[in-house]
Amino acid sequence: MASLSKRIFPEAAAVDYGAHEAAMAAYRADGEARALALGNRGPIRFDEGGTLQQSIVDAYWEHGFYVFEGVLGTQELKDIEADVADVVARLPVEKGAPLDRYGRTAIGADCRAPTVSWARPLSDPVGGTDRNNGRHPAKMIEPVAPQDAPAHVVQLVLGNLQFSPACLRVYGHPQLLAVAAAINGDDFVPFNEALWMKRPGLGASVAWHQDGTTHWDSPDLDAGSHGFNFMGQLYGSTAENGVWVVPGTHRLGKVDVKAMVEEAGSDRLPTAVPMICGPGDVVMCNRQAVHGSFANTSTQARVTLNFGFHRRASVLGVQGGGIHNELVVYDAERIFERSKIIAYAINARHQRFQEEPSYRYRPFDGIQDDYPWDERARAAIKDYNLLDLGI
Q1: pTM for the whole thing?
Q2: Counting beta carbons within 10 angstroms of the beta carbon of residue 127, is it exposed (0 to 12), middle (13 to 18) or buried (19 or more)?
Q3: What is the pLDDT of residues 28-73, one digit of tens each?
Q4: Based on the structure, what is the number of domains in the chain?
């Protein structure tokens, strides 16, 4: 897989942070050691009754994230890698271009929903700005990009389940859906999905932030009000190219992130730890936890399949946060329409992994089999992310 990785994302020379490099190297080493000592990693495990093992649940709620090891097997990783190569080949040849490198209509060019997101190499495109409702209040250090770097690189592809059958099948993974039910209840609902691509020597940073926007002032706010994201790793995740998180901050409500950075004296938050993963690991990360990522100065690409879930009660009758789509109230009909993608994903996965027991999604009891994955379904999910449930 490593050789194909270099064909998809050409290897770049390592980039340093200039005067900050020594501090960054020490920070990464210390953070990795603390991350591996937390005790919040291992395979997905259920008890004899099929309930997620309590030690996993407890560790997740204590730290705000959990690393599930070895979830995606060798064949599934090969499928994902092939689809990622196809997606990369179909990206716009440059920012704003309607065609890909082969003269075909580029991914996103005929979509109404936001699809391809770009950034300047090694930049922080949102930190210290009003973008995303101003939830990234402090800017990250921006290393100097190589002289031959392109003007922009693709950072993520939204709504990626419509472009990648392999990603769709991961979305229907029975163990991951069982985890979602254990954390958010059997009637859990979708959030949104994205394919993150952190190119070696070029990938931009994501400034420290909390994801939630809607429930901070709610009297019913708790540590799970804004749901969680799964982060499936194609090639793994390191202290250099991965996401960092501040353990326990999901339990603190709305945090003054700017003050945290100012107190630290830099973007190196002292209690943050990196998500250290191997290929096929999947991280479950609470959306209320303070997290972010540094510019990818390493020679290794990170490709992450991001997909999140909410409690139904956190979404039904609630006005969305306005980041992922328009400000609307999410009624039962919209939730049902957006949840169809779960049924399609379960069916698509069964077609590929027939020996694997399929997950039964409670809100679709009695009708789940009415949503087979076929050509009609492929057409039906175009622009499905217009209905994202962002809170």
Answers
A1: 0.95
A2: buried
A3: 999 999 999 999 999 999 999 899 999 999 999 999 999 999 999 9
A4: 1
